[in-house]
Structure formats: C-alpha cells, structure tokens
Amino acid sequence: MRDELRFDPPVGAIPVSHRGKSLALVKGLGAHALRLELEVRLPAVAQAGRVLMLETDLHAPAGTGSLLWLGSAAVTVPFEPGALERPHLQYVLPNTLVRALEERRRGSLHLALDIRAVLPQASVHPGCPDVQLRLDITESHWFQQLEGLGRSLGVEMLVPFPSPGRPGHKAADHLLEAQRRLREDDIDGALTSARHALEHIERSSGWAKPGKKPKRERNVSERWAVIRKAIEEQTTAIGPRHSGTDTPLGHTRADAETIIALTAALTHLID
Fold this sequence. Notes:
Blueprint: E1 2-6, E2 13-18, E3 24-26, E4 31-41, E5 51-61, E6 67-78, E7 84-85, E8 88-94, H1 95-104, E9 109-118, E10 131-137, H2 139-148, H3 151-156, H4 169-183, H5 187-205, H6 220-234, H7 253-270
Antiparallel strand pairs: 1-2, 2-4, 3-4, 4-7, 4-8, 5-6, 5-9, 9-10
Helix pairs in contact: 4-5, 4-7, 5-6, 5-7, 6-7
C-alpha cells in the first residue's frame, strides 16, 4: 500500500509504503514487539536538510468506525536526495492487545498507520499533513507470526476479561496470576492459582452437586459441577510414584496449560 507525504515546495511529495510480509511479532515476556518496515523514496532535492523525522501511531479498526490504538513509535532517517530508505518501527503489544487483534480480525488483519513527518533542518522547519497508511496483513502471514509466539499465548488468549463486579472477575484474576507463574516456569504455583479460580467458580456458579444421582439423570448444571470438580482434582500433586521412591510424579507444563485453558472455559459460563 502506497501513499505520499506532501511537503510544501521545494520538497513536494515523498512516497511512503509498507510491505505486508515485513510485519513481524517478536516474542517477549508478557508482552511482544510488533515490528514493521516502511519504504520511503526521498526526492532529489538538496534544500531539505539532512534528516527526515517520522512520528507514527498504529491503530486497528474496532467496529462502528472507531480505532483500537496499539502504540506510538518514531524514527529518524538520513535525508539523502534520491535515496530509498527502509526504516523499521516497533510497537510493544501486551498479550491483551494481541488477543484483541485476533478477536476483531476477520480474515486478513487490517491496521492503520498515522504518519507525521518533519524536516527540521529545512527552511522554516516544514512539516506535512498527517497521512494514514493502510496495512493489510494476510491471514496466513498473521498465523505464522502467532505460531512463532508459542502455544502458551494461545492459552492466555482464552482467559476472559470480565469487568469488575462481574461474577467471573476474581476467577479471571486468579487465571492471570496462573499464567504469570507459568511464564516463570513455576508450574506448581500456576496450578495453585488455577485451583483458586476453580474454587471461586464453585462459589459463584450455583451448580448443584449431583450426589449419587445416575449420570443419565443429571441436569446441565450438575454435569458442569462434576467437570469442575474433576479439573480441580487434576491440580493436586497426587499421582503415580516414581519407581522405588515415595515422590509423586509432578505435573508437566502441558498439564498446567491445559488446566488453565479448561478453567478459563468454565469462567465464561459464570460471567
């Protein structure tokens, strides 16, 4: 997608564009970096000074004409008449924003980049009107970037974010703590936080315990109560013993990820 930064003469128009496959998500701890590359063709004029400053804001459509703000970034490139510059911009995205992008996406990912440009060494410090560059990221390329972040992000994106005062809010808080501990490789701590979430679900759900009622006679809430209890039992350290010792086998990271995901699914039912 190409647009133009239009300065007053003698600089005139500076074409600016973005190549879709240059966008990349770089894995971080609790937050990730979204990097993209612009392509700027500088005009063959000598009166503009030595640098071009670009200030940017990145947005994503959020429905009803509004935009979800993703961050700001600025970059300075040398102004060499006639040169082609490819500056890189970087925006820090917490997991919540990555999840919001995925929830709003329908097919390709559509972003909008607002660009303000200034030539500080040119006469009277000329700037130009803001330009909005549309970025269209193919679904296949976006999936490739998400896969590069690892499967833990997929688990984190399942956790609901109910507003304060809603029944699922405290359970979601416990799950966010479980995810934080899992990122620190504290599997037992993650399971403890998940168990606290399951206990809150039990108190808030109103699901009746089926007792000795036959399985086929249980109603929907009684079946959910049984499922919740089974997941809670999976958070304990009880299990087969190592051969010749009294030490129980520990949970794996995959166990913890699955328990968090299952608990997150139950949280949706009580909110």
